[in-house]
Design a protein that fits this description.
Strand order of the largest sheet: 3-4-5-6-7-8-9-10
Number of helices: 12
Helix content: 40-55%
CATH topology: TIM Barrel
Number of domains: 1
Structural class: alpha/beta
Number of strands: 10
Radius of gyration: 18 Å
Largest sheet: 8 strands, parallel
Distance between the termini: 43 Å
CATH class: Alpha Beta
């Protein structure tokens, strides 16, 4: 595990180094990156979730639309794609698109194990690899703490054997925060995943500080609170602080607010619409808000009609 001093240094230099990542074009804007604390590996901050959005049919029109979404994701400097067997056909649709790509992209493949029992967990993870068309996952996490002792024991063994690069635990339910915090204090995790956004800042109280202290990477789900944030800002003019941060939409505004927290490693907004993906990737470049700018962003948001 790298030290906190090295981690902060890596974070400060990440934007300067990021053009070297993912084959970025010489004149392209620098991609914002953050280090994984346990290794120092840099990740582009804007990843891609697949919950609901990629749980779709395998007809040609659907595959073509999802392929366009993923092409825009990779073109925008993204690499982290997160899925789960809980998400219906999502893993399979990601795999379908990857199989049809002429060139293998710089992919950081992440999924979850979501079942009870050791053998059942192993079978599920093997099935996920086949569905997503990956030889080895970069990250596998225990989903929503289901049978976490059993599944984490397997993941730790797999990591030591080189079958997976990073391991973690996730939750999207606030009622599991207490147990997740206890696990974070005791177990050697590389990643944790939970909900955090401008309207739901519970993670600021304990999860994000503990992750920072323990050197655990954070993957943020539901950055738009399942779309409800846009109802608040619908029709509202973007504030000056958004312009200062290079934001051209409220979506980028909401993503940049999350990126302003130093303990955030990666965000995984989910979409099946190409124009939404293009917009999301606009938050993968440009300035990151400082503490004063985040305070102004929060003030602006709180002034919006509820």
């Amino acid at each position: 595990m790298i030290t906190r001093r090295k981690l902060l240094a890596a974070s400060a230099s990440a934007v300067a180094l990021s053009p070297l990542l993912a084959g970025a074009m010489p004149n392209a804007p620098a991609v914002i990156t953050r280090p994984i604390p346990s290794s120092g590996e840099l990740l582009p901050v804007i990843g891609m979730g697949t919950s609901r959005t990629f749980d779709a049919g395998a007809d040609a029109a659907t595959i073509a639309r999802l392929a366009e979404v993923m092409k825009l994701f990779f073109a925008g400097g993204g690499s982290v794609i997160d899925s789960s067997p809980m998400y219906g056909e999502a893993e399979s649709r990601v795999g379908d698109v990857l199989r049809d790509m002429d060139k293998t992209p710089a992919l950081f493949a992440a999924t979850k194990v979501w079942t009870e029992g050791r053998d059942e967990g192993i079978a599920q993870m093997q099935q996920s690899a086949a569905r997503m068309n990956v030889d080895r996952f970069d990250l596998i996490a225990v989903h929503n703490l289901v049978d976490w002792q059993t599944q984490l024991a397997t993941l730790k063994a797999w990591k030591s054997e080189g079958k997976v690069r990073y391991i973690g635990i996730t939750t999207s339910h606030g009622r599991y925060h207490s147990e997740l915090l206890d696990i974070m204090r005791k177990e050697p995790l590389d990643f944790v995943q939970f909900t955090y956004n401008i309207a739901n800042r519970t993670a600021e109280e304990a999860l994000l500080p503990l992750a920072q202290d323990r050197g655990i990477a954070t993957m943020i789900n539901r950055p738009f609170q399942r779309g409800s944030l846009f109802k608040r800002s619908s029709g509202a003019q973007l504030p000056d602080v958004a312009t200062d941060l290079g934001c051209t939409s409220w979506g980028q505004f909401y993503l940049k607010f999350i990126l302003g927290h130093p303990a955030v490693t990666s965000l995984i907004p989910a979409t099946s619409k190409p124009h939404h993906m293009k917009d999301n990737m606009g938050a993968n470049v440009g300035p990151v808000p400082d503490a004063d700018q985040r305070a102004e962003m929060l003030r602006v948001f709180n002034a919006l009609p509820a």
